[in-house]
Amino acid sequence: MDAEASPAAGETLLRTIRSVTKQPIRWLVLTHHHPDHHFGAIVFRRVGAKVIAHPDTRTLASEGGPDEQVINWIRVVGLDAMRGFEYADTPDRPVTGSDTLRIGGRAIVVLSPGPAHTPGDLMVWLPAERVLFAGDVLIEDGVTMMVDGSAPALLGALATIDALGPRVAVPGHGAIPADPGALVARTREYVTGLRTEMRAAVERGIPMKRALDPLPPADENRPVSLNSRRRRNAVRVYIEEEKGVMGLTGDSAARPMLLSSDQLAEWQRRGEVFRLIDVRTDPFTYLKGHLPDAVYLNTETLRAAERGTPLQILSGDWYAQLFARLGIRWDQPVVVYSAGETHNIDATFLVWLLAGYGHPRVYLLDGGYFKWELEQRPIAKRYPKLVPASPPPGTFRPDVASLDDVRRAVERHDALLVDARPPDQYAGEAGAQMRRGHIPGAVNHYWQDDLGQEGFGRIWKPADSLRASYRAQGITPDRRLILYCNSTTEASHVFFALKFLLGYPDVRIYTGSWTEWSEREELPVETGGTEKAGATR
Hints:
- With 537 residues, this protein is an alpha/beta fold.
- It contains 18 helices and 22 strands.
- It has three domains: 7-193, Metallo-beta-lactamase, Chain A (4-Layer Sandwich), CATH 3.60.15; 257-374, Oxidized Rhodanese, domain 1 (3-Layer(aba) Sandwich); 400-519, Oxidized Rhodanese, domain 1 (3-Layer(aba) Sandwich).
């Protein structure tokens, strides 16, 4: 993993490896494309190793072109160290989600946590030993450099590490921590604190220079020293927050979040500007009463038949027009709520679609309308005064899997299928489709199992409880996951848990769903409970 900062250093690493084993070196995994991690890669190429890396090689250091990057790096390590250099970081085996190597009977999982430190970040996970090589996503002092990445993506990567629950986490620089969870928590505290400070400065109109004044100056000749990292990160985060306020960001790494009824009430008290959307199934419940300033949307507006198959998602252009009509702006938060009892799936479906367009600030009201009403909070009957918004600035790229992806998962077992429907439908004892049962090899995780009871209402279980529940079923963040249900909505609820709450990196929804699969008679179907699969028919 990684190849040092020069051919000379790479040769030293190779000799060290040879002092331990004479086995051939088959793979070189690069955790990202900064020179200090890959400029020795040519040494390993020359002894027959193939490179596993993320295909996105962009970094600030490479902006001037490859020749300028080498010249600048020679000033750092010296000409002698760079003799024999050639670029060797183009991957033979690119990884943008997750990939599993099986060598010597051991599983080695390479996964992309998102553009946290750089766009090309990878981590290496040994599931049996629960050892994580985190690359520069983790640094010994908890101040990860984000200049080539982003703060939202780093928070997502930290959630992924939490979900893995490593016994040992090896940082990209510095000593291995005695407590991996403590280092993750310290890093998260630093990032969230910096985001809060810079957001407040932007919203108060404080220029960047003044916002950075409390920080110690950067070290002129040490661009990655602690002081330099703090200042450079602050510049990056200030710009991110400024773009967010101006509605110029399309950063899909900014994951949707839960919002409590207390938090929403506080937003209302402070006069915060946001768009509130009611997606309860029955429009007459909206007419009888809704949260103040909420606009109504029926989720059946969000899907239609495609080539005869019902309940399919629509085109990005359709959603763009609808979101603009609802007054959804990219410089304002969006809060979505449903009934909060049995139809939380309507809200998570809309959240999933908004995330597919890269909306930077989407929230799901925990407990929905039922909890809000139960707490005797304000209810309105008047409709909001809406001004149509501009169309979304980004491109619609939802996390979807095709029918061919699912076929391949069944045949090759290169992804884990997760069925979000009720257990009786999974087992083949119920269901409205032409055939009953489930896709062969799928694991059943009923979406309502992610909710707990609070009074008469339902709210999300804590992250630790969700993580343990999924892990007990073998639904772990080191696997490729394809979710399905009857029509995308139930799967969107499990997606919200895995991707947004737990930070799983490689999660997609098969939008054709059981409705498409069951109608295709040439496709196999299994029946029976979760513990024991029934016969294929």
